[in-house]
Amino acid sequence: MDGVLVTAWKALPGAVDALRWLRDRDLPFVLATNATSLSRAGLAARLAEAGLEVDASEVVTAPVLAASYLRTHHAGARCFLVGQPALGDELEGVHLVEHGADVVLVAGADRAFTWENLSRAFRMVKEGAALVAMHRNLFWMTEGGLMLDAGAFLAGVEEAAGVEAVVTGKPSPQFFAQCVEHLGLAPDRVAMVGDDLAADVLAAQDCRLTGVLVRTGKFLPETLERSERKPDHVMDSIGDLARLLS
User: Fold this and answer.
1) Which CATH number fits domain 6-61+170-245: 3.40.50.1000, 1.10.10.10, 3.30.565.10, 3.30.70.260?
2) Which of 26, 29, 34, 53 is the most interior residue, by most CB within 10 Å?
3) Domain 63-167 sits in which CATH superfamily?
4) Beta bridge partners of residue 211, listed in sequence order
């Protein structure tokens, strides 16, 4: 979504036409996003404002999978949420607390990622709380340029506490499995288009999907050049999707 279809909630060139091309040919797709700031309905509404008509049911998000994981593996647990996402009822069934948490749940980086809150989370993990992260993205592209994301802070908490977080969003194999199940297709009939070489493209290839990297969003040429592994395809933008699939 972010960096492929939009940047700062403005449609990237070719994005509107690419979605229209898919719909005209009845090619199923989902928007697989680590966005944690809004619910699926909220994300669909923001995309509509940018001219991209997408139904909330066509969006798979890291927060939804995080809630599902917690309900399954930590039912009834007290959870301390690092971040202030406007997720509505996406975390239904998750018991949020400010103190004495059994689980620390890390959302995407926002203004709530303060030294005090991260230190509280660190102390809770040291005292035995499980550590669950919606994703581990290191940075993303905004209107003002590249910004640090939750992964940069998560790595610090992991190292300081001596634990490894369970990650529910990309690049988790479970995330891609959920997307493929949503489409009702075999993995080798699905392509993943993303601007993050590691979390989007290579991780999808590890799950037997075709990996397509776009040179938009947070794409950095040096990252691709340094990588020993390469995408199956590289496009200048989502506007090239029709030509690639044809």
Assistant:
1) 3.40.50.1000
2) 34
3) HAD superfamily/HAD-like (3.40.50.1000)
4) 192
